[in-house]
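Q&A log
Question type: sequence-to-structure
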Amino acid sequence: MIVVIPCYKEPELYRTIQSLFDCERGNFPVEIILLINSYRIDTDEVLTINRDSYRQMTDFASKNNSSDFFLTPILIENLSGHQTGAGLPRKLGMDEAVRHLNGDKTGIIVSLDADCLVAANYLTEIYRNFNEYRLNSATIEFHHPVEHLDASDPLRIATINYENYLRYYRLALEFCGYPYPYFTIGSAFAVTAETYLKVGGMGKQQSGEDFYFLQKVFPLGKTRFINTTCVYPAARTSDRVPFGTGPALQKMVTENQLSKLTYQVEAFKTLKVFFGTIDLFFKKPTHEIEAYIENLPEYLRLFLKEDDFLHKTEEINRHTASLSNFRKRFFHYFNAFKILKYLNFVHPVYFDWADVQEQYTLLINAG
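Response status: OK
Response body:
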């Protein structure tokens, strides 16, 4: 197993590494690849913090490494200036992990962030799940610790609401019948080396690299949500990347909008009905599918027409001989990106944005 951690300007990095070294040990070797990175556009302050981290972690490794559990700190500077964010460093670290596994396709590559703590059974539970269920990939339970903050602290309130939003959205994907309803959080997933290579590796996106990568991974199957251990990402604001937990918290706190707004359950209910009838489209002539679409709610009908749905379905039918393949190709087309596009199409024109706590309750009752 190799744990990959991109690290940028993290003066408290020691806590994350110590948390991993404090984990229960199994009968398998563990390497931690720590990719301390900076960009051409970065300040001397960033370079100083990173270089100090590299020296500290090199010293930590010399004192704590063993033959089957060891830290490999890597310092990379002058990365391309337009690629700020964790995307490129995460890719470089995971690519390096593949090389270190030296052809072992079953080796497990775990993605973590440099502001996280982990449960004591983190490594052993990931290893057990991959071996017991012969997994290609896994997502891992997470919790942003806020218990140390005062109940009225804006950061605590914003973090709780944002985490509830993440859980609401995943549950809504499951509710509507989407076959890959998993979290896509960079600090809480793992894949085999074979899976990583099969999908072409991690992308270089400035932000959301985890989302883009995992959308290629999930359709391969054998994915599991591991809820018997936990990752604890720091609850903190950030303006380094355009979207994700840090920027969301930054916006909520600075604009004093602590109650997170989200998509309405009703929009997912429409998808649930729609996804429940896609088998009717298999090997049907276009005019029959078009007649069905005309009976859908106006907003979904308009979205499908704008997306050239009839042509896409016709193409899927041309290239499939079985219903199971049709379903797989259909959700390759109507994937997580398409669902987001639909939700943003209907909000706020057809549905108002709604409070996440309210919608969470409605979803639980609808389930």
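Response note: The mean pLDDT is 94.
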